[in-house]
UniProtKB/TrEMBL annotation:
Provenance organism: Echeneis naucrates
Catalytic activity: ATP + (ribonucleotide)n-3'-hydroxyl + 5'-phospho-(ribonucleotide)m = (ribonucleotide)n+m + AMP + diphosphate
Keyword Transmembrane helix belongs to the record: no
Cross-referenced InterPro entries: RLIG1
A Pfam family recorded for this sequence: RLIG1
GO BP, sorted A to Z: response to reactive oxygen species; RNA repair
Cofactor(s) listed in the protein's UniProt record: Mn(2+); Mg(2+)
Molecular function GO terms recorded: ATP binding; RNA ligase (ATP) activity
Organism superkingdom: Eukaryota
Protein name in the entry: RNA ligase 1
Length: 324
């Protein structure tokens, strides 16, 4: 498989965008929305997006695997944001200048406190040793997922630090149309970014698990490829999302050869999400959690639950259920 790019920064739209003063389809209480125009983003053209690898954009929360306390650890996305006073000053500047260029941040006083373990994402710019925010005033970063942190309990459910493994959902080596659930050593995932999806993430658009028996997985970014993707053209992409069985996805992320990432989301094109069953949740799935089965003594543990289903094949991913 070709080399894939990790998701450390906000991915720009493959098209040039504009802001419309109307209620957002994506975020409640947001009275504007960002929509795509028909013009291609110059960054996408420069990166030769027509030759890029098109992959499915999954609807979850971004994670990262890197070293913490001397061993591979799962990290959750946490952006450092401005405090109320700085946010007010920033918006006032934007309104008066019709741009955020030239705005000066105070690194010591303008931002909310983040945990001491927080690290900035790759390629975040620094000035005098301080990480600088992006154009929205946010500094993307990561915090390690500790088992005793209830805020990240669903992240914790997919990792076992005692055996150094993570629950991964990936295409089967035998048949790429089939998804497999596997326990993968965290060491094999070092420096990758992944998407956490499941019952308690982003409204569960894939219909996974239940309130009584939640189901969560990690999916490495770029591993769910889109076969025969449409050309990178506004009207053809919109038609593909609306009419193609393969178009029942949240969006597309293109991995360009030079490391550039660009995306398009259904909301960019004025389309709903979710909108019925997704292509991803309709895929066949097989459970292959067996490499460290003997380590799992807690019957409520997600690893134990999946290891009990070892070898089971489900006609649809969303049909995976644990026995009561």
């Amino acid at each position: 498989m070709r080399s894939l790019c990790s998701v450390q920064q906000k991915i720009p739209c493959v098209f040039l965008t504009e802001v419309k003063e109307e209620e957002s389809r994506k975020r409640a209480c947001q009275q504007y929305q960002v929509v795509a125009t028909e013009g291609l983003n110059p960054a996408a053209l420069q990166a030769d997006v027509d030759c890029a690898l098109a992959t499915e954009k999954l609807d979850g929360t971004c994670c990262y695997v890197t070293v913490y306390k001397g061993r591979p650890y799962l990290w959750a996305r946490l952006d450092r944001k401005p405090n109320k006073q700085a946010e007010k000053r920033f918006k006032k500047y934007q309104h008066s200048h019709r741009s955020c260029e030239g705005f000066k941040w105070n690194a010591d006083n303008d931002f909310k406190t983040v945990p001491e373990t927080w690290i900035p994402a790759h390629r975040v710019r620094h000035h005098n040793g301080h990480p600088l925010p992006d154009e929205h005033g946010h500094t993307p970063g990561w915090v390690p997922v500790e088992k005793d942190n209830k805020q990240y309990c669903w992240h914790s459910s997919v990792v076992d630090y005692e055996v150094g493994a993570a629950l991964i959902l990936r295409p089967s080596a035998e048949d790429e149309d089939v998804l497999e659930v596997a326990a993968v050593p965290l060491a094999e995932l070092l420096e990758q970014t992944l998407e956490l999806i499941g019952t308690n993430v982003n409204g569960n658009p894939y219909g996974l698990g239940s309130k009584k028996h939640p189901v969560h997985f990690l999916v490495s970014h770029g591993t769910i490829q889109i076969r025969n993707p449409p050309p990178v053209d506004f009207q053809q992409l919109r038609s593909w999302f609306q009419g193609s069985p393969e178009g029942r996805v949240e969006g597309i992320v293109w991995h360009c050869a030079d490391g550039t990432l660009v995306k398009v989301h259904r909301h960019h094109l004025g389309l709903r999400w979710p909108d019925g069953d997704s292509c991803f949740s309709d895929r066949m799935a097989v459970v292959c959690v067996d490499s460290v089965t003997g380590e799992y003594a807690d019957l409520q543990d997600l690893f134990s639950s999946f290891s009990a289903l070892k070898g089971r094949c489900f006609s649809r991913l969303q049909d995976i259920r644990f026995d009561p």
